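Changelog entry

Holo records now carry the ligand SMILES as an explicit input line rather than a separate metadata file. Below, a converted record for magnesium ion, shown in the new format.
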Amino acid sequence: MENGKLNLEEEMQAKWEEKKRELEEEVHIALVGQPGAGKSSLINKLIGRKLFETGVHTDTTVDMQEAAFGTLRIHDLPGYGTARFPVERWVEEFHPEQYDLYLFVFEGKLHDSDAILFSYLKQWRDEREHPFFIVRNKKDQIWDEEKPKTELMEEIARDVRDKLGEPEAPVQFVSCRTGEGIEELKQAIFAADVLGVKASKLRAEFQATSMEDLAYKKQHSMKAVNTYAWLGAANAVNPVPGLDVTLDVGMFYKLLSEIRRIFGITDDMAQTLEKYKVLAPIGQRVFSYATQEGVVMMVKKLAGEFAGKEIAKYIPFVGQAAAAATGYMMIQKIGEKYVDDCHAIAQEILRGVLKR
Ligand SMILES: Nc1nc2c(ncn2[C@@H]2O[C@H](COP(=O)(O)OP(=O)(O)OP(=O)(O)O)[C@@H](O)[C@H]2O)c(=O)[nH]1
Ligand SMILES: [Mg+2]
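Structure line, unchanged by the conversion:
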């Protein structure tokens, strides 16, 4: 070992770097639709956090709003079809063709400008493999004295399909108020083959609404733990002072924060968790890693337990680099336990035992 760097075979190193890039790769979601259609409400609903303000009219007709959530980048595109921004001009100005997927959100009637937008959406889908999803929000408000709701919904869907020129196009009816249709929309997004690995990002980052979602998040997090364990040990430039462990504390801290985020665990839950008999110790474990200092403290505390272990069987070909191997094992073992703990808390949130 030289300069705290491990002599991993170069191709192995490259492989793990590649995996890390894959984990960190961003997914760009574009929100398009008329002001007040519920774009902000929808994204907040999917993510399970108040990422965007709703109801208040920011001037979305001229400004683009952006927000980040983990590996997701959400671009709330300004309105089009105004005197200032006919669709063509809007496309030139904002380059909306660059995003990975589009959520077209509407309520009420479609406009002529929406039909023009549809022709662009189709083009980006066909030429760039950037899918779009047509979302009719405010399903709870679809009502008419004369006609049943199903008939009204059919009319709305028909209008969309006419304007799109695709008679079979799916239209997702949702209500951000009641939550109706959100699950179906999520499934439609996850099923978009063209998104490839990006679909798995969306599934990891969107709020879990079922035990299956949580199982998926667990699997995704375990992969992240393994990737970070390799890189965190092999690239550690800052051995933990006074200990026979090399471990990149910053990277470890980041990993654990990401796991909390994926499972929807926020800092304000620490106090709530204390009130539950069974969950209190789990909460304590999870939040003891919530600051960088906390991570250093825990690593120091636990280093002894790992240092003495038989490490060769975990990573045979770096068996000689004991300090890095210990670092690897710590990230791997603590990480796995951390995922289990966060998963357990998230299950209780989903069961409604714990309020978010
Ligand atoms: N009844 C009902 N109201 C909703 C629903 N979704 C959103 N709203 C309301 O509609 C209003 C507009 O929602 P926003 O999410 O702010 O809409 P937006 O498209 O982001 O609006 P701009 O950012 O101004 O373009 C808010 O008052 C929401 O509370 C829904 O499903 N049902
Ligand atoms: Mg908005």
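Spot-checked after migration. Residues 322-351 form the longest helix (30 residues). The chain has two domains: 25-205, 208-351.
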